[in-house]
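pinging the channel bc i need a second pair of eyes. not urgent but kinda urgent?? the chain im working w is below, pasted from the shared doc
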Amino acid sequence: MNTPEAVAAVGPLAHPVAGVPDLVAAEDVLLFVNAAITATGQREFRSDADAQRLSLDFLHTYVRVNYRRVYAASLALDINHHNAALIVRALLETAGEASDEERRTEGRLIAARLALLPPPRVYRLFGELRRAKVNNRRTRAIMRDWLAARPDLGHDAVKYRAGLKTAARHIHLRCRQEAEPLPETGEFLFRPGRSRRYEHRLLDAWRRAHYEQGAVTELPFSVAEGFAAKHGMRREVFLKRAAPRMTRLERLRTQEQRVVGDRRPDVDLTAMPLTRLASYVLSLGFTQRAERRAELTGALRAAARRAAGA
């Protein structure tokens, strides 16, 4: 993710270990970057999730304490989302250890990285910061700027309701009457059920979905699933109606449930992220993998080439 914004934010940190003769320092940084690219803190072949998290937490702490500028600059590298969130949280939790100049640079790096993270990951990070009672001025400003840049807070209020509500409380987000759509979103989050109608399409669809089955498929798929179960909708009928509003990952996740006879839903597997695609392939039975060997192999190769930058 070496975007121009991220690279510009690094500034003088472009060569953070230049002039350091100690080979150990270079090896430490290389080990950390490799781990930040590959490690996810999940169960793997040789170790369980707890062992993974313990090792990764130690490595993050070690590099942050000894090479803080390098640690922050790694946000500009193509590390995975899990480690990017860990770095952001650690930098915000330990702001007192950094100089004013370092905090300014870290702020730009954090903002650039948060803009690239999936919204659920960011909202989860905000929740962790609240539980850790990290509420300094810089943290509030970063959270406020990220929320201000969201294209549709009404959509977030419906799909990521708990996350947005937690973030708004943590930074004391004010919903001024003249600042649309914040007043309506604030009312939806903190005073649900009081409004007889919302101007925002998704907020009103959520209100109507409690008693109107037709409004269910107007909602984001992950939210609509709960309402569909509440109304007793048949799964195949619900999936057919909800398909146009699914994200590509939701289409992939529900692909096998939407098979009708020999007709398979039109899902472009070659456009899927490599990790998601690999998880999907592993979820299939051996018979299905054998029948679709050419299709799955081609999709995996295309995703691998894209991940490698080819």
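so Residues 210-258 form one domain. and Residues 4-17, 177-181 have pLDDT under 50 and may be disordered. — does that match what u expected or am i reading it wrong
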